[in-house]
Amino acid sequence: MCAAIGHTIIQLFRSIGALCLFISRAVTHVFVPPYFPRLIGRQFVDIGYYSLPVVGMTALFTGMVLALQSYTGFTRFNAEGAVAAVVVLSITRELAPVLAGLMVAGRVGASIAAEIGTMRVTEQIDAMTTLSVNPLKYLVAPRLIAGTIMLPILVLIGDIIGVFGGYLVSVYNLGFSPVRYLTQTWDILEYMDVMSGLIKAAVFGFIVTAMGCYHGYNSKRGAQGVGTATTYAVVSSSILILIFNYILTQVFFS
User: Fold this and answer.
1) Which pLDDT belongs to residue 59?
2) What is the 8-class DSSP label of residue 50?
3) pTM of the model as a whole
């Protein structure tokens, strides 16, 4: 029993150490030339543009449901006027970055892990090393750059769409005045509310791409290994997003 627990703890710290070494090496290649602009541009499209529909739909219906639920709860205390404030603060501070991070983790993190894992299984990464092409520079660094830059852009668009969703429900379903709703939204919103969400999004984008690259790069042989790497990438990204969301919230608003 004690031996099994000790072995598990050793494996845990070994995995954490390997992950830290991998990320440190990858980040070094992000800041050291040469760069591959075409690869970075392709990742901008894959991570950002193709994730826009799922992030937009998630933000829209989240804003709509949030407005409806807030109104339902606040009517018990005659505080219906706080719906606009709750919607805009919840979207910009928490819901947009967290939900966008989780959606991108499911779509992009899995895709990155599967792609790089397949390259590992088919020995394409070994071939790159043989041809003096650094796999971290060629495969990992462009994805880290694109993920860290594109997720804040997605979240900013999600903020607008989510607030618009709350506006639609509040005005056309709950009978709010359009001018008053927009005025309350603008008055309550502060610069730090938006910036905290964008900073969170940058951290989440880095986490998603880093975990996808790490698990794909260290994928075991065979189709089962690629599937396991994909699962680990999504699960670990989602857990780290929730953990770092709390840490960053404590830093910004404690």
Assistant:
1) 94
2) T
3) 0.92
pLDDT of residue 242: 95
CA distance 94 to 91: 6
Q: Are 220 and 165 in contact (CB under 8 A)?
A: no
CB of 204 closer than 8 Å to CB of 103: no
The alpha helices in the chain, defined as continuous H runs, are 2-31, 37-43, 52-74, 83-90, 96-104, 110-121, 124-130, 135, 141-172, 178-188, 191-217, 223-253
Residue 200 tokens, joined: 């969170």
Kindly report the average pLDDT of the chain as a whole number. 89
The residue with tokens 């826009």 is 52
> In sequence order, what E strands does the chain have?
none
- Give Cα separations from 17 to 12, 22, 33, 125, 245 (angstroms): 9, 9, 26, 22, 22
Structure tokens at 62: 């989240």
What is residue 175's DSSP assignment? -
Of 51-55, 130-134, 240-244, 246-250, least confident by mean pLDDT is 130-134
